[in-house]
């Protein structure tokens, strides 16, 4: 009997994989225990020396012991997001089984923009897209295994990150209002409307597209940086009076800084009435669709024309992994108009290519990562996880409100909380210095944001292990950081 070619793996690779798996699993358990610092701060040159990067570049790894030492050092100077004291940026805490699709991809290296190059990965991508579309009410298939394109049915694909996703949607909106822009360039009269707190990727996208960041027109917002629905009409009228056309209106679903949702239903109704493309940036907040308890924040989403959804924020999926979702397939199919004889030609296909629609030529099997996160425990578990994170944020906010030396911004809508420490005596700049000192000490991880000119400390609850004692721990570490600053250069505000 002929030996299977799959058995011919060098013993050394087996040993390295076993050693690596042991190191990673030990690291994971140690991190989850909360006994270790969230991060160890070290200068870049010192880390490079400890990793012995010059030696390995020239000589290669000489033994499995060298590899083990390299991995161990690498892990030592990595942020431990699995640590329950990590309440920083909105980066997903990957499910433990997320390591499996990463390993599969490391072996196969199958891109999925062409179905024939990565059939399994492409299949899972289209299945996950159908599942997401069904949550939006945009899926028109008979069942989730119905992969047919329908001109007026929902469609979408996955890409590497929300910034690239927003750029793709803006291009699609431009193609809809100005079909000749691809060959003749941008009309001079196109603008985009939305909140001032829109994600910075929108401004970047407008500049990349040649429209310029000045093409963004802000709709007045309230003290929570939420769009005032009664100001949409007057803003629109001023745009029309100036001789401009609205290419797209965008809503935060939710805002990255505060976690608050814009009035999606009112905005959607206005866009429907005035024939304007309505886009919802749901990079962070789209997961509310999975929760019966919190999906009301996205009431009116059926009125949108497009939405982006980051799985690497709140779906226990490793970075990067974003869905671009269109209510109508025609908006996806009419977007990019490129040629490439070695790729775009007639052929018999047993599946679906995404290459004609995505800015990326080569793309990792992102759908596999999302599917594993869902299948690890089932979609009900994902729903419970999302609700738990949102619930814990409310619990943390109540602890802040009960603390005499902290002041909360406002009750959270998602899993993002903003607050200040001793705002009576600490200035905006000092709030930022305080945050930086907390990071320097390394026992917990918090972020910061500015809301209407006021600097706030900011937490995002993504870790399923984070509990009340971790919240109290974080507040105490902020107090300790303040104590280390007092008596140095830290002075009370005037």
Relative helix content: 40-55%
Class of secondary structure makeup: alpha/beta
Overall average residue pLDDT: 93
Distance between the termini: 85 Å
Strand elements, count? 11
The geometry reads as globular
Q: Please state the CA-atom Rg, rounded to the nearest Å.
A: 24 Å
Low-confidence stretches: 1-5
Strand content: 5-15%
Q: So how many helices?
A: 17
- Largest beta sheet: what is the strand line-up? 1-7-6-5-4-2-3
Report on the biggest sheet: 7 strands, mixed
SSE order, one letter for each helix or strand = HHHHHHEHHEHEHEHEEHEHHHEEHEEH
Question: Could you characterize what this model shows?
Answer:
With 494 residues, the protein is of the alpha/beta class. 41% of the residues lie in helices and 12% in strands. The chain has 17 helices and eleven strands. A seven-stranded mixed sheet has the order 1-7-6-5-4-2-3, sandwiched between helices. Strands 8-9-11-10 form a four-stranded antiparallel sheet. A hairpin with a 2-residue loop joins strand 10 (447-451) and strand 11. The protein is globular and about 60 Å long. The protein starts with 10 loop residues before the first helix and ends in a 9-residue tail after the last helix. The model is unreliable at 1-5 (pLDDT under 50).
Can you lay out the helices and strands and say which pair or pack?
Elements: H1 11-33, H2 44-51, H3 53-59, H4 64-76, H5 99-108, H6 119-136, E1 155-159, H7 162-177, H8 181-184, E2 190-195, H9 200-208, E3 216-219, H10 232-241, E4 245-252, H11 264-274, E5 278-281, E6 306-310, H12 311-314, E7 322-326, H13 329-333, H14 366-375, H15 379-402, E8 406-408, E9 416-421, H16 428-441, E10 447-451, E11 454-460, H17 468-485
Parallel strand pairs: 2-3, 2-4, 4-5, 5-6
Antiparallel strand pairs: 1-7, 6-7, 8-9, 9-11, 10-11
Helix pairs in contact: 1-4, 6-14, 7-9, 15-17, 16-17
């Amino acid at each position: 009997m002929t030996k299977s070619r799959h058995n011919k793996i060098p013993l050394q690779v087996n040993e390295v994989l076993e050693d690596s798996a042991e190191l990673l699993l030990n690291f994971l358990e140690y991190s989850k225990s909360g006994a270790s610092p969230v991060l160890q701060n070290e200068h870049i040159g010192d880390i490079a020396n400890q990793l012995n990067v010059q030696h390995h570049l020239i000589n290669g790894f000489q033994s499995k012991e060298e590899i083990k030492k390299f991995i161990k050092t690498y892990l030592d100077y990595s942020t431990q997001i699995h640590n329950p004291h990590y309440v920083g940026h909105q980066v997903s805490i990957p499910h433990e089984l997320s390591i499996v699709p990463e390993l599969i991809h490391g072996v196969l290296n199958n891109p999925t923009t062409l179905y024939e190059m990565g059939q399994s990965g492409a299949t899972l991508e289209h299945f996950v897209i159908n599942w997401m579309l069904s949550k939006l009410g945009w899926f028109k298939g008979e069942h989730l295994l119905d992969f047919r394109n329908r001109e007026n049915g929902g469609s979408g694909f996955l890409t590497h990150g929300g910034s690239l996703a927003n750029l793709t949607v803006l291009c699609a909106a431009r193609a809809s209002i100005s079909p000749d822009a691809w060959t003749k360039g941008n009309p001079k009269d196109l603008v985009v409307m939305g909140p001032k707190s829109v994600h910075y990727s929108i401004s970047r996208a407008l500049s990349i597209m040649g429209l310029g960041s000045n093409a963004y027109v802000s709709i007045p917002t309230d003290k929570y940086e939420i769009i005032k629905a009664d100001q949409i009409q007057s803003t629109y009228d001023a745009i029309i009076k100036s001789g401009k056309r609205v290419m797209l209106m965008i809503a935060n679903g939710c805002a990255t800084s505060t976690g608050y949702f814009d009035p999606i239903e009112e905005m959607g109704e206005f866009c429907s009435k005035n024939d304007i493309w309505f886009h919802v940036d749901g990079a962070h907040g789209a997961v509310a669709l999975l929760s019966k308890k919190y999906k009301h924040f996205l009431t009116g989403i059926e009125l949108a024309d497009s939405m982006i959804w980051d799985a690497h924020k709140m779906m226990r999926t490793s970075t990067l992994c974003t869905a671009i979702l269109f209510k109508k397939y025609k908006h996806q199919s009419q977007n990019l108009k490129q040629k490439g004889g070695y790729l775009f030609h007639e052929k018999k296909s047993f599946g679906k290519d995404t290459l004609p629609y995505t800015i990326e030529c080569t793309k990792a099997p992102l759908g596999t990562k999302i599917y594993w996160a869902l299948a690890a425990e089932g979609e009900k578990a994902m729903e419970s996880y999302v609700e738990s994170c949102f619930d814990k944020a409310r619990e943390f906010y109540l602890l802040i409100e009960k603390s005499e030396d902290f002041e909360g911004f406002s009750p959270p809508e998602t899993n993002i909380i903003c607050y200040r420490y001793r705002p009576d005596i600490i200035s905006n700049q000092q709030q930022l210095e305080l945050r930086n000192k907390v990071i320097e000490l390394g026992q917990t991880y918090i972020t910061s944001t500015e809301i209407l000119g006021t600097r706030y400390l900011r937490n995002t609850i993504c870790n399923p292990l984070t509990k009340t004692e971790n919240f109290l721990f974080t507040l105490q570490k902020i107090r300790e950081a303040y104590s280390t600053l007092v008596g140095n250069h830290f002075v009370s505000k005037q």
